Amino acid sequence: MHKARKRFGQNFLHDHGIIRRIIRAISPHESDQLVEIGPGLGALTEELLAEAGALDAIELDRDLPPILRTKFFNYGDKFRIHETDAMKFDYAQLRTSDKRLRIVGNLPYNISTQLIFHLLSHAEHVEDMHFMLQKEVVDRMAAGPGENNYGRLGIMAQYYCKVESLFVVPPGAFNPAPKVDSAIIRLTPYRELPYVAKEVSQFETVVRTAFTMRRKTLRNNMKPLLSTDELEGLGIDPSLRPEKLAISDFVTISNYLTDKKA
Ligand code: SAM
């Protein structure tokens, strides 16, 4: 018997109705290049393998791969486990053809936002991603301008991906039960970005700087990067709070700063 470990963020899914609903949302096909982060004891893996026939799994807890290998023995080398940290994994190495990766996972909550930032940097290799996250994190990722939970996480996710919040999963679906609601999110990286930052690192700096103090205006927060006159020149009202700006506005500021450096 494996005992759930807190330090690995282990909350195992046991509600079969919820598991089926997640699988339906993913809709795996035989030709898919599926990657599961944190398979745990294989609750999702079992159904994913049954439908897709092959899968790469990334699992950090070294006690779990022997259990999973035994359980999915009959899949032979179509079930591959990478015993490593999903935060350090180079996802590009799994692309053996021009097929992009379909990444899924009931993610360990303690690292979920950092992991998503890591995955966004590999977005060109990804077809789509379906994750279970704390509902609060899903809401932040899906929030739009004007909403009070719109910020850096949502902007970075929406810069690269179409973001869909799918459904809520209550604590009772897991063992042990977490303290808060969870939710399923679908992230589909754009083949062509709607707004292109000439330099992504500059765009990240602009977004981080704009939200230094959420309650302050752009005039205040953006001072280290550009003046009120420059903001006005770009058609952006300096008296706004950062959460009022669309992604296209952040890209406009970022590209202006990139051009200015040149
Ligand atoms: N997929 C299983 C399920 O739904 O029942 C387990 C989900 S559990 C919330 C998270 C899983 O991620 C655990 O198996 C845990 O050991 C694994 N994990 C934690 N940190 C990890 C990391 N940095 N890289 C890869 N796997 C990790």
Which segments are poorly predicted (pLDDT under 50) over 5 or more consecutive residues?
none
Distance between the termini: 60 Å
Largest sheet: 7 strands, mixed
Helicity, as a percent range: 25-40%
Strand content: 15-25%
How many separate domains? 2
Overall shape: elongated
CATH class of the largest domain: Alpha Beta
Comma- or semicolon-separated keywords:
262 residues; alpha/beta; Rossmann fold; 2 domains; seven-stranded mixed β-sheet; two-stranded antiparallel sheet; 10 helices; 9 strands; elongated; binds S-adenosylmethionine
Can you put this structure into words, describing what you see?
This protein is an alpha/beta fold. Helices cover 35% and strands 19% of the residues. The chain has helices spanning 16-26, 43-52, 64-71, 112-120, 135-142, 152-160, 200-210, 218-221, 228-233, 247-261; strands spanning 12-13, 33-37, 55-58, 79-82, 101-106, 126-134, 161-169, 174-175, 182-189. The strands form two sheets. The chain has a seven-stranded mixed sheet. Helix 3 links the parallel strand 3 (55-58) and strand 4. Helix 1 (16-26) packs across helix 2 and helix 4 packs parallel to helix 6. The longest helix is centred in the C-terminal third of the chain and has 15 residues, at 247-261. It binds S-adenosylmethionine (SAM). S-adenosylmethionine binds at residues 8-13, 37-40, 43-44, 58-61, 64, 85-87, 106, 108, 111.
